[in-house]
Amino acid sequence: MSAPAPGATRTPSVVDRLAERHLADQAGLDPFFATEIGVPGQDDRLTDFSPGACYARAAAARAAVGSLESAPVADEVDRVTVATMTASLHREIALAEAGEHIGDCNVIASPLQAVRDVFDLMPTDTAEAREIFLARLSGIPDCVDGIIDGLRHRIAHGPPLARRQAVLVAEQSDAAVAGIAADTTALADDPRLADATARALDRAGSAFAALAVMLRTEVAPSAVTDDAVGRERYLRFLPAHLGADVDPDEAYAWGLDRLAAIVDEQAALATEIVTGGGVREAMSHLNTLPQYAIHDRHEFVGWMQELSDRAVDALAGIHVDLPPRLTRLECRLAPSETGIIYYTQPSADLTRPGRMWWSVPPEQTVFHTWQETTTVFHEGVPGHHLQLGSAIVSDDLNAWRKLASFTSGHGEGWALYAERLMGELGWLDDPGDRMGMLDSQRLRAARVVVDIGVHCRLPAPAALGGGTWDADKAWRFLTGSVAMDHAVLRFELHRYLGWPGQAPSYALGQRVWEQTRSSALRAHPDWTLRDFHTRALALGGVSLDVLADELTAG
Question: 3-class SS at 467?
């Protein structure tokens, strides 16, 4: 069994057809997911979040696993597809069978955010696109009814929801229609659609208001005050996000050690910034320097775009292989105001480019570039844009491997690896930019400690007063460990509390990428660093154990 020869055209296999059939099922059962990954044909529809629809998605996953078990494996590409797809779907099925996918409610990745954020991805530059947008906008009330049905099912059957998340999502629901309205300017300017758009927004606002009331009056009173999901539930969440099995106690101990090592790096660097000063003094000094300060959010987006363009021009063909069709990366402001930065991949046909989004909190008035230089590399090149885009333009991978095979451990782990890589390549030699990279890495290590500590109810460090980890201890730990704006950091904490297992996948995934690179270069002494990157990215999205196996075999 072998991979296709370089330059050869690979004939689609039975496994490819099964994978693409499952992708089509996913797109039909989850239209928001279809829009997110750029699969056409579903953009006028909304995802159904009712219990029945959640059961249907789980059934499709089980059917896909069953079909793969008997499928003939034609080559190495098939073997990787089967291994990755089977592992990913088994982990998703475990969560679904435990009831975790029905009535999900958290501040970043639950149905409300899916409804609100999908409109950011939808074009409005043609009459047809505006009509599709309006059709989806008009479907929000029915979609929200499904969300409410799912929440009531969750109240009745469990697992329990956290009261903190219900209250916060209610606040987001209050503001959801305003975020969507920001995307409707072109519709409001279209005389054919203006009145219908206004009516649709009004009905959507009423639906979101009803959801907010339901969250406050039904979900919150029935929810638990404990933010922790407990070890049993956590052991389903963490592997699903990481794409590998891991011992949470070992990972927690590693997170503490990693955090201490990064703090030592920062302390050494701080003395270069402020003579005799510590890390906080150095960061405070950096915040006073005008060369790092931008006071207009649109100017900040322009700065992101310029830095991203410069990285693309400098790295392509030297340290990484960047297909010419991927050189276009757009930096944009997101209508939401949560404080996160995120990347959305190109559409399948590349008509929608990869985009880096900045969601600016309303109270943030100054942007310190020393903190965000590394973020541009994380989200753009050599981070997510290179990784996800390289899979999309591959000639060897089926559509599921190109578009839908993503786990945080692999994808976010690569993006953190990319931050360190840029330091290796001299792009973070400026002391401020390097301090920002280290602070970013420090946050990701702190996430490992907080997320596992809280959700597995581990003993808290003596410096926090001992006892069991909880939200208050996590807040003191984060504010003492990370120099992030407190408004953004507060959202970060709420995210960890409501989305268990996702946050640690970044640093734990980076650990696997770094270990795999070392092992691969030892196993293949003729490889350059560019060879490693090219071969790793050619795999597309894979589980982390598959990544290590594929690249370290002699």
Answer: coil
Residues paired with residue 320 on neighbouring β-strands, in sequence order: 316
What whole-number distance in Å separates Cα of residue 330 and Cα of residue 319?
A: 22
CA–chain centroid gap for 294, Å, is 26
- Given a cut of 80, whether residue 7 has pLDDT beyond it is no
Angle CA 342–142–119, to nearest 5:
25
Give dist(CA 385, CA 356) in Å, integer: 9
Give residue for tokens 């809280």. 454
**Contact by Cβ (8 Å): 478, 492:** yes
Verify cis geometry, omega within 30 degrees of 0, for the bond prior to 461: no
Reduced to 3 states (helix: H, G, I; strand: E, B; else coil), residue 330 is strand
From start to end of 187-315, where are the E strands? 293-294
Coil, strand or helix at 354: strand
Find tokens 């009516």 and name the residue. 199
pLDDT tens for 191-226 read 999 999 999 999 999 999 999 999 999 999 999 999
How far apart are alpha carbons 132 and 130 in whole angstroms?
5
Enumerate residues 6+ apart whose C-beta is below 8 A from 77: 3, 4, 10, 13, 396, 397
H/E segment holding residue 329: strand 329-333
Q: In angstroms, how far is CA 23 from the centroid of its own chain?
A: 19
Would you report the helix, strand and coil content of the chain in percent, each value rounded to 5?
65, 5, 30
| Buried b / exposed e along 483-515 (16+ C-beta atoms within 10 A) | bbbeebbbbbbbbbbbbbbbbbbbbbbbbbbee
What secondary structure letter does DSSP report for 106? -
Are the beta carbons of 497 and 229 closer than 8 angstroms? no
Structure tokens at 321: 């292989």
β-sheet bridge partners, residue 140: none
Percentage of the residues of the chain whose pLDDT score is greater than 70: 97
At 5, the pLDDT band (50, 70, 90 cuts) reads very low
Phi/psi class of residue 284: alpha, beta or left (left: φ > 0; alpha: ψ in -120 to 50)? Answer: alpha
- What is the rounded distance in angstroms from the CA atom of residue 187 to the CA atom of residue 338? 25
SS (H, E, C) 510-528: HHHHHHHHHHHHHHCCCCC
Query: What single DSSP character describes residue 160?
Result: P
What distance lies between CA 389 and its chain's CA centroid? 15
Label residue 338 exposed, middle or buried (CB < 10 Å: 0-12, 13-18, 19+).
buried
Per DSSP, what are the bridge partners of residue 329? 354
Query: Which ranges in 274-326 belong to alpha helices (H)?
Result: 279-286, 297-315
- Extract the tokens encoding 408: 């945080």
Place of tokens 């055209």: 9
Report how far residue 433's alpha carbon sits from residue 427's, in angstroms, rounded to the nearest whole number. 8
DSSP H helices in 425-503: 431-455, 471-481, 486-498
Give the pair of three-digit tokens for residue 246: 């891991």
Q: Which of 241-250, 304-313, 338-347, 440-449 has the lowest mean pLDDT?
A: 338-347
Q: How many whole angstroms separate alpha carbon 478 and alpha carbon 446?
A: 7
CB atoms within 10 A of CB 467: 10
